[in-house]
From TrEMBL:
Residues 1-47 are annotated as: Disordered. It comes from the Bacteria. This is DUF4913 domain-containing protein. It comes from Mycetocola reblochoni. Residues 1-38 have a biased composition (Acidic residues).
Length: 201
């Protein structure tokens, strides 16, 4: 039986280094940091059900991450166009990649998680190329994604390109319009609850 070593009050260098190491900080990287306060890896984002406040948070986080992604990997406009935020198909794909990336860098992730992410990222780039080419968005111009009217549905409006001189201003305006639309829907829902119960909302 080995006697226990006396407590000298000295701190193990390995433990000290581990305690002092902040995984969220990397002076050589501008990558967005993961949320250390989260109890576990984030779940998927359902953009159809986000509240106004949650949508604003997701828009800002996704926009920051997409900038990091395109700069880090040198992605062309054919993969991630400037006006991706105007096209739901691109928003859903990029949002899924973002959550996938957050899960891959989470402390609870396996060591091979980033390899899996890069494999899926390679596949996602082909889908992004397809949707970017299909919707017709370009470096300085954009147009709504073409929607085909089925029999019995009203004809769709003509598709026209518009020139957008400032991408960041357009993003902020688009985000605010989306958030305000969600907020109006929330207010209408709450007002409807008040009418159904006879209470003043």
């Amino acid at each position: 039986m080995v006697d226990e070593l006396p407590d000298t009050g000295e701190v193990d260098p390995g433990e000290a280094a581990e305690d002092e190491f902040d995984e969220s900080y990397d002076p050589d990287s501008d990558a967005p940091a993961a949320d250390d306060d989260a109890a576990g890896p984030p779940g998927p984002v359902n953009w159809n059900l986000l509240t106004a406040d949650a949508a604003e948070e997701e828009w800002l986080a996704l926009n920051e991450w997409v900038h990091w992604l395109r700069h880090t990997y040198g992605l062309p406009v054919a993969v991630i166009p400037p006006f991706w935020h105007r096209h739901p198909e691109l928003v859903w794909e990029l949002s899924a990649l973002h959550i996938h990336w957050l899960c891959a860098i989470h402390p609870e992730a396996k060591g091979s998680a980033m390899l899996v992410w890069h494999r899926d990222f390679t596949e996602a780039q082909e889908r992004l190329r397809h949707w970017t080419a299909s919707c017709g968005t370009r470096l300085t111009t954009d147009r709504p994604t073409r929607r085909i009217a089925w029999p019995g549905e009203p004809d769709t409006d003509p598709i026209e390109d518009i020139i957008i001189p400032n991408r960041e201003e357009d993003f902020v305006e688009y985000m605010h319009a989306d958030v305000e639309a969600r907020r109006r829907a929330e207010d209408q829902f709450i007002a409807g609850l008040g009418l159904s119960t006879g209470e003043v909302p």
